[in-house]
């Protein structure tokens, strides 16, 4: 259950990134993933141990995965809606 939180935060980051102008996305995505990973690690209580950097890195990668899936699903669903309107 603890690994569900970074994916959920990643979905939120991905949906926020879709609202950001394209020129700012290369800055917002890594920043959102690192902050989201640190937030997930803090909520899960993983920052107290000596391997906190490893936990934050893993959670940041999980946030990135969640963001990538959210962006991909949004693009697929909007492409399908566009195709249906053309028929």
How many helical elements? 3
Number of domains: 1
Largest sheet: none
Parts with pLDDT < 50 across at least 5 consecutive residues: none
The level of helicity is: over 70%
- Measured between the Cα atoms of the first and last residue, the distance is 43 Å
Radius of gyration of CA atoms, rounded to a whole number: 15 Å
Q: What portion of the residues fall into strands of 2 or more residues? A: under 5%
Order of helices and strands: HHH
The class by helix and strand makeup works out as: mainly alpha
The outline comes out as: elongated
Report the mean per-residue pLDDT as an integer: 92
Number of strands: 0
Structure notes:
With 87 residues, the protein is an all-alpha fold. The chain has one domain. It has helices spanning 4-17, 25-44, 52-86.
């Amino acid at each position: 259950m603890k690994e569900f939180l970074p994916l959920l935060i990643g979905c939120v980051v991905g949906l926020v990134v879709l609202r950001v102008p394209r020129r700012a996305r290369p800055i917002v995505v890594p920043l959102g993933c690192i902050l989201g990973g640190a937030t997930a690690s803090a909520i899960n209580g993983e920052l107290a141990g000596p391997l906190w950097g490893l936990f934050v890195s893993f959670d940041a990668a999980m946030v990135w995965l969640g963001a990538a899936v959210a962006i991909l699903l949004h693009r697929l669903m909007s492409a399908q809606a566009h195709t249906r309107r053309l028929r």
